[in-house]
């Protein structure tokens, strides 16, 4: 299951190849996006699959031991909530929740653009916010929050997320300049070996990635919008949850 600021998605996952089995189900995130409202959607989606095994869940905030610690783009009442316990009360299987970008990164490192890549790899997801995941020789350093570095006096994700591109009706070159500035600030404090860019906009990577002037090589994610779901399933199955 992938809990996002605008949509909640779920699917069965084949972990042999990192692929979705059948069609994924997507439901608009209820507004206000309170835990109980979201739990009810998760319950319905899991019910549609008739699934009673382990469930990996992504959450768009810092997650430690099943508890949400931040909630930049969902209802603030999530902060301090034990999400694993809340969901386990409404679905049959054990639940493992982790940060959405960490999940997407795990999937990309296993099956996608980061496969067999050692060194330090940074995955960034551009969606409602900007999510980040750092890997050192393939091992996740969980809960990095590089969407919130300060860029020109503002939260980085408020300048350069994919939602900002849509909201401000920016062309790809205009938005690429925002992303470039964001990455310039990020690269001052972080020397990584590869940057993988994901989220829905990675489908249009050819329109903006070549315009970036980063020191580090930037490649688009390969699993695109499925990465969160696949990574959540992987983390639940292999107990990779921090
Ligand atoms: C949150 C991150 C999350 C990212 C993408 C940010 O606002 O702080 O935890 O990974 O959005 O959803």
Task: Considering the chains and any ligands shown, give keywords for the structure.
single chain; 242 residues; Nucleotidyltransferase, domain 5; 5-stranded mixed β-sheet; 3-stranded antiparallel β-sheet; globular; binds beta-D-glucopyranose
Please explain how this structure is put together:
This protein has 242 residues and is an alpha/beta fold. The protein has two domains: 2-100 and 226-238, ATPase, nucleotide binding domain (Nucleotidyltransferase, domain 5), CATH 3.30.420.40; 102-224, ATPase, nucleotide binding domain (Nucleotidyltransferase, domain 5, 2-Layer Sandwich). 31% of the residues lie in helices and 26% in strands. It is built from seven helices and 14 strands. It has helices spanning 35-49, 83-88, 100-111, 156-160, 162-167, 172-189, 227-238, and strands at 2-3, 7-14, 19-28, 55-59, 63-64, 67-68, 95-99, 120-126, 130-136, 139-141, 150-151, 154-155, 194-198, 218-220. It has a five-stranded mixed β-sheet. A hairpin with a 3-residue loop joins strand 1 and strand 2 (7-14). Helix 3 (100-111) crosses helix 7. The longest helix has 18 residues, at 172-189. The protein starts with a strand and ends with a helix. Beta-D-glucopyranose binds at residues 60-62, 70, 72-73, 99-101, 125, 127, 129, 131, 145, 147, 157.
Beta content comes to 25-35%
Please, what is the oligomeric state? single chain
Low-confidence stretches: none
Largest sheet: 5 strands, mixed
Mean pLDDT: 96
Rg calc: 17 Å
At the fourth level of CATH, the homologous superfamily of the largest domain is: ATPase, nucleotide binding domain
Query: What's the N-to-C terminus distance?
Result: 17 Å
User: Per the principal axes of the C-alpha atoms, what is the gross shape?
Assistant: globular
Bound ligands, named by name, code or SMILES = beta-D-glucopyranose
Strand order of the largest sheet: 10-9-8-13-14
Number of domains: 2
With helices defined by DSSP (H or I, 4 residues minimum), what is the helix count? 7
Give the CATH level 1 class of the largest domain.
Answer: Alpha Beta
Helix and strand sequence: EEEHEEEHEHEEEEEHHHEEH
How much helical structure, as a percent, in the residues?
25-40%
Number of strands: 14
By CATH, the topology of the largest domain is Nucleotidyltransferase, domain 5
């Amino acid at each position: 299951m992938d809990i996002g600021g605008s949509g909640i998605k779920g699917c069965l996952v084949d972990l042999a190849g990192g692929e979705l089995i059948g069609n994924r189900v997507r439901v608009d995130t209820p507004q206000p996006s309170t835990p109980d409202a979201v739990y009810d959607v998760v319950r319905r989606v899991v019910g549609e699959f008739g699934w009673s095994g382990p469930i990996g869940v992504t959450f768009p905030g810092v997650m430690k031991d099943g508890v949400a610690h931040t909630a930049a783009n969902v209802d603030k009442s999530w902060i301090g909530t034990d999400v694993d316990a809340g969901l386990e009360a409404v679905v049959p299987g054990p639940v493992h929740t982790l940060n959405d970008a960490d999940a997407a990164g795990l999937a990309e490192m296993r099956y996608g653009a980061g496969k067999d890549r050692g060194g330090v790899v940074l995955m960034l997801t551009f969606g409602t916010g900007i999510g980040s995941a750092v890997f050192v020789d393939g091992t996740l350093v969980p809960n990095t929050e590089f969407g919130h570095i300060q860029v020109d006096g503002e939260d980085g994700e408020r300048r350069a997320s994919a939602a900002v591109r849509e909201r401000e009706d920016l062309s790809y070159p205009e938005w690429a300049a925002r992303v470039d500035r964001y990455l310039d600030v990020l690269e001052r404090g972080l020397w990584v070996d590869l940057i993988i860019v994901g989220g829905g906009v990675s489908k249009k990577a050819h329109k903006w990635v070549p315009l970036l002037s980063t020191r580090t090589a930037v490649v688009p994610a390969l699993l695109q919008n499925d990465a969160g779901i696949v990574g959540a399933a992987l983390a639940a199955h292999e107990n990779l949850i921090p």
